[in-house]
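for the writeup, i need someone to sanity check this before i put it in the appendix. the sequnce is what the collaborator sent (i think, or maybe the updated version? ugh). structure was predicted straight from it, no edits. if anything looks off just tell me and ill rerun, i have time this weekend
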Amino acid sequence: MSIFALALALPLVVARPRPQEGWTALPLPALCTPKLAPVHPIERLQRGYHILFDTFSSECTPRPAEAALGAAELGYLLADESAREDGALRLLGTAPPLLARGTKADLERARATLADLDALGKALEIELRAWWLPQSDPLPVWPDDAAARARIGTAEPLGAAVVRSGGSVDLGRRTERTCVVSFDVEVASDANVAEPRIGRVASGRTLHARVARVDGGRSVLCEGLLDLSLELPALQFDPESSDLGVFEQPRVGAVQVAFAGQLASGGWLAVSIRGHGQHDGVLLVAARTASDPGGTLRWRGFDVAALAQPLLDWPMPEASLDALFEESEPEHLREALPAAEFASVAASALGAAKRGKLGSFDSSGSLGPVWGEGLLLLPASETAAVAEVESLVQASESERTRSHALLVRQGALEVHLPVCDGSFVRVLAVDERTALFDYDVEIAEDAWIPTPRVRRVLSGLVLDGHVQGGALALRGWRVASEPDVRVDKTRANLGALTLQQNARTVLAARVGAGSTRELLPPDPAHPALSLTLSPAR
């Protein structure tokens, strides 16, 4: 054959279509499968309250996002990877099943990538178990395995769950009952009515935890809110008014501990409470996860879920609060580091231009980063970008996971808990109740009625704060309440009410690591309040 004839025939050979397989359903990897977190009514708990008013019946604490990759992002990843290899993979749909069509090589490559991603998704799972051991002696914040297992014995766990990194779970049992806590008043000409206001009283033993993998899955960061609440005998209050019925004044004794700590996979954390009667005991938390998958994977995954949530400053519980008072929302003390921030650094290292929100090609055909909630994926072959992101994640986690042991002591009351840089801290030990403390008057033509005002009253100790830069910044208060003074209708005119008396001390302090500080001196109602923060571990 002549050179001219060969030149004419060559494009025909190159352009000859490669045989396509039929449409095939590809399984989505585990990290693209959404996890359904249980919905627990934890409204008001971040505010420290357990007597709930129907005004706030729809309020719930928002859930943090778990580490995940969306199906749309996965589709772009597979399509770009195929194009990089000069393939012609076609994808249809972004929900299970993922329908694909291409050559045999295209489909084999897609299946290999999906297998790698599935292994990564399974490594993101964290097994979490917790035990509440009532009236148990305190344990070190990081107990060894033998001591923890010996203390548990045959006790039933508070709860257990498998959570994807970055996700949250609620363990334990919480009960609610309803009661008449006040009356809403309507007045019109020649008529009036008092409508009962129904409130709820919450009690129980619950742990509300968020867990995330750190150090490539060798450790787990656990942030938790332990809530112990016991309903006490309620009081009945008769306002001695023919227009109003009898109120119930519920009472709850509560202890809350917000803590955070890093534990090795398979290790333990302990929160110990002593000197508070029926709330004495030890919370033991165990977490286990898998290390990042190794071997010759096509994609390197970075679990950054521990860094993807902002540090929030929870609203401080008020010692005395009108039930209808509108309260502020949690404030951001530190912004999150989402996966997109790490992807930006990776893209710079790759020198790759991004198309939209996803990685794509530059002129050299290099594939850029792909990311989802708390998760970043990089081609394993891009060693420079992988090393750059690995260094950045390690530096960020080393700051975020620096842990301390904290001891709060007030007389016989002792609370031992772990705390982490960049996590919220709370120690709350209060009695909560309601009281009718005042009346407003609604008046219309030929009709009037007193409108009761009910107040939430807390007495005890509240400490809120966060660790930053190796020191614990705290704010709080301590309140001692005297018995209420009842004022009869003959003296108050509109109806009987109660007058409250309390002595309140407010504090704000900063305690450095490795030091002990007396936060409040003793007073007639309380012993001294001190705090000890251990050096970072």
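The chain is about 15% helix and 50% strand. The CA atoms of residues 183 and 197 lie 5 Å apart.
thx in advance!!
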